[in-house]
Design a protein that fits this description.
This protein is mainly α and 109 residues long. It has a domain of 34 residues. It is 74% helix and 0% strand. It contains three helices and no strands. Helix 1 runs antiparallel to helix 2. It is elongated and about 115 Å long. It starts with 5 loop residues before the first helix and ends with a helix.
Length: 109
């Protein structure tokens, strides 16, 4: 013999509740379905979560990463210095051109 399905159990529970109102019968049916759904989820869950860990990095990989970070940092430092020098040159050029412009507009001798 096969066991009745959860839906059959819920329908039987509703039919057996002859003295209850329709709302109570529906509530009991919903509770029965919820119980069976949680029972099915609990039986299926333990097999679903199996993680596989990958091995860690070797010392050579960490040295290569450290070297790449150092080289990148030095490159970033040189780029920042070059930007600062360019900003100083642009400011100097701007001040010189502004002074020439004011001298050409107001020739006082």
């Amino acid at each position: 013999m096969t066991d009745p399905s959860p839906l059959d159990k819920a329908e039987a529970a509703v039919r057996n509740a002859e003295t209850d109102t329709v709302a109570v019968q529906l509530a009991l049916a919903a509770i029965e379905l919820a119980k069976t759904a949680t029972a099915q989820q609990q039986t299926a869950q333990p097999h679903a979560c199996q993680q596989q860990h990958k091995p860690g990095r070797s010392a050579g990989e960490w040295l290569a990463i450290g070297g790449a970070v150092c080289v990148g940092s030095i490159g970033l430092a040189f780029a920042s210095i070059a930007l600062a020098i360019a900003a100083c040159c642009a400011t100097g050029c701007f001040l010189i051109l502004r002074r020439l412009w004011t001298d050409l507009r107001n020739p006082k001798g």
